[in-house]
Amino acid sequence: MNKWIDEHTGRIIRQLTNEPHGARMDYFRLPRFLPNGQVMAFDVGDDRSILFVDPETGEVDRRRMPIVRRLKLRESDGRLWYVGESGRTIWMVDLPSGEPQLIAEVPEEVPGHFIDITCDGRTLILGQTREDAPNNPKMHLGTDAEALWAYLERPRSAWLWSYDLQTGRLITLDESHEYGFGHHDTSPTDPDIVKYSLDAHDALYQRIWLARVDGSEVRKIRPQEKQEFVTHEFWWPDGKYIGYTYQDRRYDSTLRRIPWAEYAPVPTHFGVARLDGEECYLSDPLNHYHSHLFISRDAKWVIGDGTDGHSFVYVAPFSFDSTKVDFVPLATVHTPYVPFAGQAVDACITPDSRWMLYNDTVDGKKQVCAVALDL
Length: 375
Hints:
Layout: E1 2-5, E2 12-15, E3 23-25, E4 39-43, E5 49-53, E6 60-64, E7 69-74, E8 79-83, E9 89-94, E10 101-105, E11 113-117, E12 123-131, H1 145-152, E13 156-164, E14 170-176, E15 180-186, E16 193-199, E17 208-212, E18 218-221, E19 228-235, E20 241-248, E21 269-274, E22 279-282, E23 292-295, E24 301-307, E25 310-317, E26 328-332, E27 348-349, E28 355-362, E29 365-372
Antiparallel strand pairs: 1-2, 2-29, 3-4, 4-5, 5-6, 7-8, 8-9, 9-10, 11-12, 12-13, 13-14, 15-16, 16-17, 17-18, 19-20, 20-21, 21-22, 23-24, 24-25, 25-26, 27-28, 28-29
């Protein structure tokens, strides 16, 4: 295992993967741990290979599977639902060594892209975005404000559906002809609800929404006033809360000129809302903006992906009883920073709270690294 002393924090860094084309863990808000403590990662050069990494020893097991799209990993028992090679079949497998089982074939007339599935494996979440102009601008990842606004304000329509794999019932959950939907994410514990966001500027539109998969209710999570900036939402491990970052830009005249949260001239806070939509926690101002914030499985640690000028992976103790969240840098992040996107750090803490895991660039390739959580 490759090890070195971090040049800024003085801590020992352990490189857990050494894939020739690189390896990475999934997006920060997605489940990734198996009951045996292994973390699920992926070979950058082989999209059909799943890597099972032991955070303690660095041992890596590999399994090739005919997966077109991963839908959901249920961490409680390691069950993974995924889309099979035909693009219309839904499978499940108990990782790391179970045999895949076909659970449904979705008819061609069912619309949309397969995005997620509920934690009981019954309800599929589908979405579709239609670009309404022939030359809509592409996503801008840079510091040209007008190019970013052109992308965010492009004409488009979007739909969000649920599809019951047992009954074949298709329900429209939401529809828009002004913006798109994104970050679709079913509850880790409740098979009846899905969280999603608007694909629009987060300070001008309501960011977080919750829908019941039977179509009976759509509600706002942390209702926003115009120019309140809420973003990077995620489920609490027990499914009882939703976390996010918050900035108050209601009195900030620079929003059009500086649309990025990471460069905003206002402080960033860590917020938490109940599922009824109301905010129940807001931290004091953080030491700086973080590309992503996340919570450990025991809800005792907040994880912070650094940002431009603060290229570290951070951790801070968390309690609902204290509004103070003091982030400590554990490891330097060497991946180049991209405005509006971050550094794909996707950090997390192992279930035993011994290690902080994160993606970083080593010798020009993304790999999974670890640093001890020894505060």
